[in-house]
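Input sequence (316 aa), recorded before submission:
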Amino acid sequence: MFTQARNTTAKLLLLYVFCTFALVRSQEKLEVGDRVPSTVIERNFSVCYQDKGSTTSLGKYDYTRNGGEKFVTVIATYYTGCTPGRNEAGAYVQVIDKYQTAFQRNVAAMETLKNGVNGEICEEWARLGFNTTDFEKISAGGFPVEIVDDQDRALLYTFFEGPEHPEYVILDPCMNVVSRVSNVTDLDTVLFEASSPEAMDTACSEQESSVSTPNSPPTIATQENPTCVAAFGTAHDLTTIANSEHNISFPRDVTFESDNMLWVANNHTDGITMLALNDDGTASSANFQADRAHYHYMDKISSLSFDSKGQFATCQ
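Predicted structure, C-alpha cell format:
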C-alpha cells in the first residue's frame, strides 16, 4: 500500500510517463525580437469563426513561405468572461478592417479565446460591439479576423503566458515578433508604422541578405565515447503506473490525495487526473476532473499540494 511518505517513490515510478511524452519542460512565450519557430508557423489551426471547420496557419502570412507576399500579422488573446476583452473585441475587428479595406494594407489577424470555444461562442464573440447592420457590413467581404479553435492552446502558449488579457502580438512579414501591446489604441499606433509602405519595403531585409555560403568549412565536434550513468543507483526497478490512456496530458506534478489515490496535474487539459492505485502500484481506475473554466485555477499547474483537511492548492 502506498502512503504519503512514499511520494518520492511514486514520482520515480511516474518518470516513465514523463520521459515518454516529453512532459517535464514548459514552453516560454515568445518575446519581442524572437522569431516564431517553424513548427508553429507550419501548424494548421482549426477555425471556429468565420469559416468554421476550415484551417488556417501563420505560414499563409510568412514572406519566406507564401511566395513573397508581405503581411503584418496580429495575434490577439481575450478571456471571454472578463469585461476588458468584451469591451475591446469589436474595436479590434474595426481596427483590422480599417487597415485591410480603407488603408489597403496587408494586415492579417487571428485571435485565441481563453475560457474555451464552440461555434456559438465564436460567433457571439465576433458580433460583440456591432449591431446587426454594421456586423453584416463588416462581414460582407469575409470577417476581418480569424477566430481560432485553439483547443490545445498551442497558439496561446506560444505567444502569451500569464494573466494579461486582452493582449496583442504583432509579427513582421518574416514572422519576427516586433511588438506586444495590451490595448487597441496602442495596437493601432504600432500597426500604422509596421504596415506602412516604407516598413514593408525594408521588412525581411536581414533574412534575405543572411543566406550565404560560409567561406570556411564548418567545425566538426570531437567524437567521444558515450557513457551511461545509473539514474537511481546501480540497481533499480521501473513500474509504469499510467499512460496516455488514463487521461494524462503533459503532467507537471503528482501527489497523493490519500494512501492509494494519486493526483496528476495536467498541463494541457486544465485539469486533474485521479488514479486509484492497486497494491502493486498500477492504476485500477482513472478519473479526470476539469476546471470549472478553462485557463483558470488549473491552467498550466506547476505544483499541487494538499493540507491536513484534504483541501488542495495549485501553483501556476
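Checked by second reader. The first strand starts at residue 45 and ends at 49.
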